[in-house]
Amino acid sequence: MIGWLQGHVAEPWQQGNRCGLLLACAGVGYEVQLTRRHWELLPPAGSPLCLYTHQSIRDDGWTLFGFGARHERDLFRLLVAVSGVGPQMALALLGTMPCEELVRAIVQADLRRLCRAPGVGKRTAERLAVELRGKLAESFGAAAAAGDDDLLDGVAGSTDGDPGPAASTREELQLTLTALGYEPLEISRALRALGREGLDPAHDADAWLSACLRWLAREAA
């Protein structure tokens, strides 16, 4: 099984409602399908990129699904284990909202929010809530079962509730820093610390990235 790839962006692709990229790794090009959110934030061709992957083997072919962080891939695997939820629906759920919001919607049985994802109806949303609440608690901690807003540290490294960059900038930073080898919790701590230090949320992604790298370097020293 292919669980992780490190290479360079060769080219993005889009086929109907599916999207992904060709990732060049040591002379081999891997075709990897992504969530729409991830695809829209891909760096330019030639940029380094690391992806956690899930390999699906079916009679009609093999497919690689790529994720910017391990927790996102783990959540994808929990989703596809639910009856009636296939890989494309799982990608739609992950592409509709950030991981921490999706976990919160499931554990709080927020059917209306879950049904925003293309192809997800009320019955499927109910199954997600019934089948995954306990598993999310087991995988991501008691905070997930409680629907605690503080579960974000363990699930998606979000900075919700703290000063920090805009949501779109934060997601771009998470993808970029993950590609550079940083773990979600490290990224979360950097963003929170910089927000509390007063870094302007209106600064662009480049300014936040430079500040994050400096902060992470200080922590590692």
Q: Topology of this protein?
A:
Blueprint: E1 4-15, E2 18-25, E3 28-34, H1 36-40, E4 48-58, E5 61-67, H2 70-80, H3 87-96, H4 99-107, H5 111-114, H6 122-140, H7 142-146, H8 152-155, H9 167-179, H10 184-196, H11 205-220
Parallel strand pairs: 3-5
Antiparallel strand pairs: 1-2, 1-4, 2-3, 4-5
Helix pairs in contact: 2-3, 4-6, 9-10, 9-11, 10-11
Mean pLDDT: 83
Major sheet summary line: 5 strands, mixed, barrel
CATH-defined fold name of the largest domain: DNA polymerase, domain 1
Strand content: 15-25%
Report how far apart the termini are.
Answer: 36 Å
Find the CATH superfamily of the largest domain: 5' to 3' exonuclease, C-terminal subdomain
Radius of gyration: 17 Å
Fraction of residues in helices? 40-55%
Let me know the number of strands.
Answer: 5
Q: Which blocks of ≥5 consecutive residues have pLDDT under 50?
A: 142-161
**Helix-strand makeup class:** alpha+beta
Shape estimate: globular
* CATH structural architecture of the largest domain: Orthogonal Bundle
User: How many distinct folded domains?
Assistant: 3
Spatial ordering of strands, largest sheet: 1-2-3-5-4
How many individual helices? 11
Task: Give the topology string: H per helix, E per strand.
Answer: EEEHEEHHHHHHHHHH
State the name of the first-level CATH class of the largest domain.
Mainly Alpha
